[in-house]
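In this supplementary section we document a worked example of the pipeline. Step one takes a protein sequence of length 287 as its only input; no multiple sequence alignment statistics are reported here. Step two produces a three-dimensional model, which step three serialises into structure tokens for compact storage. The input and output of this example are shown verbatim.
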Amino acid sequence: MWPLKSTIVRSIIQGQWQAAALLSKVEPDWGGQMAVELALRTRRSSRPVSIGFCERPHYRENLSVQGHKVAVYRWVGRGPRVLVSHGWNSSALRLYPLIEALRQGGYEVVAFDHIGHGESSGQSASLARFARVIQALQQHYGPFHAAVGHSMGAAGLALARHQSGTPLPLVLLAPPADVRGWFAQVADRLGFSRAAYLKMERFLERREHIDLDSTPPEVTMTENSPPSLLLIGHKDREVSPSESRRYERGPVRSLEFAELDHKTLCSDPQVLKNMLDFLDGSAASSG
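The serialised model returned by step three reads:
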């Protein structure tokens, strides 16, 4: 949700997008570059995060990743260590119901704010950067028993696992599937020409050092991937259930919930129970 004076903020952003669209008709390179910069810009809420009933982190640390400060939160426990990856324009502590469920289940939890989010530095982010930060956390705090991700944080986990080849079980809550499709929709709504859109796409790939063909679940989820649990809410208006279902590839167990949306999926008791059952089963099989 937007902070106070949201109407003013929306008007400014809408004007910037319109400027990018107009510029693309005169200078496709510049218009595409401006559109990418706007699309990757993150927004932090002005409201403080309430940790709710979650026990406060036992340790708060900063990890340097590609010149950025990444805020890391750790809860110690006697059980296996689990990594938690939040979604776009969110933060680690906004997943406190999920973190508390893991903690109550005996797991040691490592959560963090992605670059451009929460207490971490930066003003922009991308799926590629999500994946790189996740790999940095794996190298510094791993090995992990499993990882849990919501929305873009889930997509980042799938991409990071594929890139690194780490045999890590994943719990994926409402993951988006198609970066290229999202940018194409943005370009279409703004009236970008095909040539301007292609320049926008190429600039994105150069800027983020990523081939967009390597990012969808048809590539990152394979028959040889470790087991995953996919959780989908039918009332999700941010990531459509049909998009998340594209992750049903390889050894994936998929569960859907008729009454849950993008946000409530992260706190519903039945969802959290299914998450713990999956993690407990993974622990038993690995032990």
